[in-house]
Structure formats: C-alpha cells, structure tokens
Amino acid sequence: MKMAVTVGAPAAARAGKDATDVQLAASDGSAAPKPAADSSDGRVDPFALGKSQIELLQSLSERRKELDARERAIEQREGLLAAAEHRIESKIGELKAVKVEIEGLIKKYDEQEEQQIAGLVKIYETMKPKDAARIFNELDIDVLLEVFERMKASKTAPVLADMDPLRAKEITLRIAERKKMPDLN
Asked: pTM here?
C-alpha cells in the first residue's frame, strides 16, 4: 500500500483541518489512520511517525550538524585568510616604502659619486699631460676608466701618449668594451 504524507498549511487547506495535522492517505483513495500532532506549538508528534521517517529525520539532523561544522570551519578559514591578506598587504606597503627610500638613497649616492668624479676630471684636465700620465699608470683601473670617460678627448690624447704603452692599450680596450655593454639601470 503506497501512502502520501502531507504536513502543514497546504494539507490543512485542502482538508479543512488545523495546520498541525498530519494526513496519511492511501494511494487507492481509502482513508488511512490520520495521526495528529497533539502539541499546541505546531510540532509533529514523533510517535506518529514511522521508523523510516524517524531515520530520515535523524539523518537530516546529522547532516545539518555536519554542514554547520563545515560552515564554522570555512568561516574560520575565511577569517584566517583575511588576516593573512591584511598582513601581506601591510608588508607590501612597507616594502614599497623601503624600495622608495632605497631608490632615493641610491640616487643620492650616484649624484655624490658623479660630483666626486667630476671633481677628479677637472683636476686631471688641468694637470700637465706628463704628470697626469704618471698618476694614471698607477691608478686603480675602475677609477681611471670613470675619469677617462668623462674627460674631453682633447685632454685624454696627450695623457695617453705619455702613459706606459701597455697601460694605455689596456685602458683603450676597457673603454671600448664598456661602450658595448648595455645600460642595465
């Protein structure tokens, strides 16, 4: 025997009964026993339900608990992610500020270094070529190249002529190599 179960206002409206009634009807149209919820708060009497209905309700209750636990876990994770995202954003802001500060310091350092090299260039350009050549023969190659590149060609030619030929050759080759290198800044 197949039975249809209806609960609540739609069933009560069709049958003209109170909304708390549970109606069980046989599929062949004969009336089956109709257990009613006797409680005044609108709940269904659990003793009127069958074993499979009780198991279904228990299963649904367990599923609801699992879903609630999952929801709490997801909310916790969302909170942790939001906190981590906030920390990352603040670190990014700090790093950007540090980057700007470092770039400013590098620019300031480069300007100071350029001023120092420009001062050396003026000194060596005013010297006699023979005296400058004597110093350039002994000067550190990196400093020498920086100074040489900034000197006027009319001033470097006589100095190179008075320098040790091997040292003059090395300087010429290094200047040629440096001009081929791309600017990485």
From this structure: 0.47
